[in-house]
Amino acid sequence: MLNGKKIAVVMPAYNAEKTLRATVSELPEIVDLRILVDDFSSDRTVEVAKELGLLHFVHDKNYGYGRNQQTCYTEALAEGADVVIMVHPDYQYTPLLVTAMASMIAYGIYDVVLGSRIIGGQALRGGMPLYKYVFNRLLTAFENLFLRVKVSEYHTGYRAFSREVLTTLPLLENSDDFVFDNQMLAQCAYFGFRIGEVSCPTKYFPEASSINFQRSVKYGLGVLGTTLAFALKSWGIGHPRIFDPRGRRLDPAKADYYARGRLELGRNS
Prior knowledge:
Spore Coat Polysaccharide Biosynthesis Protein SpsA, Chain A; 8 helices
């Protein structure tokens, strides 16, 4: 707990057996809920989650990173979380920053906090491929221009959100793929939530998850599309569902919150 707020860490997992223990071992004591959602891994991720005593949920097939996050946030809200921090269980980002990120939300400073690999100049030294670094900088500059929010990077997977953010955004309108991350931040900007950042070192190694060049290009095109959709909506041209306040939201009170009807969960505790 922080400032009377319940803190949850959610971990969207896919084949994270080798790195899950190291990730969980660094979670601070202020975390009240530790939730893992497994997107149909082929390794022992679920078994390790059980051994670590995590509240965990298992998809019946591989639905994608975006859908995994929808499940993560829904289950955290259902458990009464006030602040939710997404930590990748591949140990690429240090969980030691959870306290700092959660504090900035729990004390009302920001609604969203990002762990930035760019602040401090650690990205390349941490092993980020040069082409990803260049894409990151170019896409971020493009987005800052159109989204009218100045942040150092939009493409980190280390994020913290208030409960209000997660219940306000029409997250069920977003992609099931990696561009979900970017759509979510564009939604945060569109709906006027305050976005802050902390410097976060990163490390790339064989066990850390990372999309390849082809999927990076697909992600980059999705980012451009999301940014242009934001601009058109702001100019009163077009009505993309991801920015529609009447769009489908997460609703932990309903049994059918997986509105697309393709998902069945096995809940274990």
